[in-house]
Write a structure and sequence with these properties.
The protein is α+β, with helices and mostly antiparallel strands. 38% of the residues lie in helices and 14% in strands. Strands 1-3-2 form a three-stranded antiparallel β-sheet. A three-stranded mixed β-sheet has the order 5-4-6, with no helix packed on it. Strand 4 and strand 5 form a beta hairpin. The structure holds zinc ion (2 copies). One zinc ion (ZN) binds next to helix 7. It comes from Herminiimonas fonticola. One of its GO terms (molecular function) is DNA-binding transcription factor activity. This is Fur family ferric uptake transcriptional regulator.
């Protein structure tokens, strides 16, 4: 477990914060740098372990402002533990042209680490502008929409797909 955060992540965190309307406070820079340097999503405890000198309340507040600013996202786990990763997840709910930038997550069932899977939306969930669904080329979104219609009937629309793949991470699979 490393004690310090590499300086280039601090610089990156600071420059990302400067592109938003939230102030680049010391705490926010350190928390964001910790998330940026993490290979997998961090729980509060993981962040606290990295930033041992930071008090709990400051850490929670910094995380909230980073999430609000879209620099980090929160992943709800089925173990009732929230984990955080740098980068935005989603989706503006309720807007007319809601951008569907969603990504999937991989959860290791042994060590409980959660990894973000990038670009899954473009590859699998992209909606084809045309409706000619060829079974072999249909995206995951189209296939699921078909299942939805045939199971629940007409009129149901899917707005988002929450995708979590469970299995063993590389470290756990190797042992
Ligand atoms: Zn694992
Ligand atoms: Zn994620």
């Amino acid at each position: 477990m490393k004690k310090t955060t590499a300086p280039d992540f601090l610089a990156l965190a600071e420059s990302q914060l400067r592109t938003t309307s939230v102030r680049a406070t010391d705490a926010r820079i350190k928390v964001l740098a910790a998330l940026l340097s993490a290979r997998y999503a961090f729980s509060h405890q993981d962040i606290q372990d990295t930033l041992v000198d930071m008090d709990r309340v400051t850490l929670y507040r910094a995380l909230d402002s980073l999430t609000d600013a879209g620099l980090a996202h929160k992943i709800a786990g089925d173990d009732r533990v929230f984990r955080y990763n740098a980068g935005t997840e989603e989706i503006a709910h309720g807007t007319h042209h809601a951008q569907q930038h969603q990504h999937g997550h991989f959860k290791c069932t042994r060590c409980a680490k959660v990894f973000c899977i990038d670009n899954i939306d473009e590859k699998l969930l992209a909606t084809d502008a045309k409706h000619n669904i060829n079974p072999s080329t249909a995206t995951l979104r189209q296939q699921l929409q078909k299942v939805l219609q045939s199971t629940l009937g007409k009129g149901f629309q899917s707005h988002e797909i929450e995708l979590t793949i469970k299995g063993l991470c590389a470290d756990c699979a190797a042992h």
